[in-house]
């Protein structure tokens, strides 16, 4: 009976998790990646960044870096120490908190002269309900409820 009860609990949790883990990966600059002479603000416009989402910065190793800065650092292209730079060429940053986020390249004058910088606003994890969002959530919610009902029916 304990094994059966464990299965029921697991199935209920499994049915709820998909609705809770809607994190998206955003490849900064899409196919262009993290590079010079690209309009990152235009790229970011219209995107809905949420807590838990991931920014992926793709670039050739050694050609660029990624620095997380504050608003002043963004406006004035103030570089942090090299030890704080991301340099892997496939850097992933999890958006862990809501608010404004600023990123620049710390190589040469890429930020100042070539516009290699990104500003985004991260929203809370769960979007506010609007007229459109309940319709988008219906398939996941329906699936979750269906799995829960079938699991409970099989359990008893």
TrEMBL record:
Pfam families: Cu_bind_like. The keyword Plastid does not apply. InterPro entries: Cupredoxin (IPR008972), Phytocyanin-like (IPR039391), Phytocyanin_dom (IPR003245). Residues 1-23 form the signal peptide. Gene3D superfamilies: Cupredoxins - blue copper proteins (2.60.40.420). Residues 24-124 form the Phytocyanin domain. Keywords: Membrane, Signal, Transmembrane, Transmembrane helix. The keyword Signal applies. The chain crosses the membrane at residues 137-155. This is Phytocyanin domain-containing protein. It comes from Xanthoceras sorbifolium. The lineage of its organism: Eukaryota, Viridiplantae, Streptophyta, Embryophyta, Tracheophyta.
């Amino acid at each position: 009976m304990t094994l059966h009860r464990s299965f029921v609990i697991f199935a209920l949790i499994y049915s709820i998790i998909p609705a809770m883990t809607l994190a998206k990966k955003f490849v900064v600059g899409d196919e262009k990646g993290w590079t010079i002479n690209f309009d990152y603000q235009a790229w970011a416009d219209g995107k809905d960044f949420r807590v838990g989402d991931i920014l992926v910065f793709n670039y050739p190793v050694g050609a660029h870096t990624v620095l997380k800065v504050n608003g002043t650092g963004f406006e004035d292209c103030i570089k942090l120490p090299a030890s704080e730079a991301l340099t892997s060429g496939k850097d992933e940053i999890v958006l862990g908190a809501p608010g404004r986020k600023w990123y620049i390249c710390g190589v040469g004058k890429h930020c100042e002269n070539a516009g290699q910088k990104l500003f985004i606003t991260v929203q809370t994890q769960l979007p506010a309900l609007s007229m459109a969002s309940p319709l988008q959530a219906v398939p996941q919610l329906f699936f979750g409820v269906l799995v829960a009902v079938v699991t409970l029916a099989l359990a008893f």
